Amino acid sequence: MRVAAIDCGTNSIRLLIADAAGGGLTDVARRMEIVRLGEGVDRTGRISDAALARTRKALLGYAAEIAELGISRVRMCATSASRDASNAADFRDMVRSVLGVDPEVITGDEEARLSFTGAVAGLTADPPYLVVDIGGGSTEFVTGSSGVEHAISMDIGCVRMTERHLHDDPPTAAQIAAATADITAAVDTALAAVPGREAATLVGLAGSVTTVVALAQNLPGYDATRIHHARVSRDEVAKVTADLLGMTVAERLARPVMHPGRADVIGGGALILQIIMERSGLTSVVASEHDILDGICLSL
Fold it and tell me: Sorted alphabetically, which CDD domains does this protein's record hold (predicted)?
């Protein structure tokens, strides 16, 4: 059965088309567009007209590919920005008109469970796992071995932290300190709710993590095959984070692995990863290119 999953988060909208058989997936196509749906939502409580237009344009392209490839079932999940926005109904109406299905504005708990399912499929590292999905508006913390045992979603993400604290280019020491305090409080709350400090392996998901891992490996370009299941140390993450926070956006853009739509918020995402590693005591992170998209497809 050929299925399609769409994940619409605060920063990006992504598509996975896969053939499902025997409980596994074979990729047909993976797509990602930076649409910044959550731009300004932390401040205004609303999705802007411009953000809706950007998302609609990307979704039209995805709908055309879905129609062309003969999909049996489609599931679209929308996460942090569309949970928080007062005009989420406008977003749902737009999706229905373009895609023909309603988006599921899932809870943080469901987001965490889908992310865990996708992330640990095919993973050979030692359990139990702490899986962290660092998004634009929220970060999910999930622990478990063969299945989810504990999960919590916290309102820290690369877009939210950048908009809330990291205003200058590059951010000032005071701004970084404010972001650090905010993130640390949220991470400590999460680790009090889920036993992340007892995990044997930290698994990191989403673009902030994979970009940091690519930078730590000094890759000449973004290469998902070299990033998937790569392991980097806490010291390497701290170095990359310090470098990113000391750069201007233009300097970040000059790095060959950097997606143009991520350059202005990657410092906040890297800082979240660094603080999770520091507060959990875990000394390395394994990056996964498989995440909530894979979990959504498997759910079909």
Answer: ASKHA_NBD_MtPPX2-like
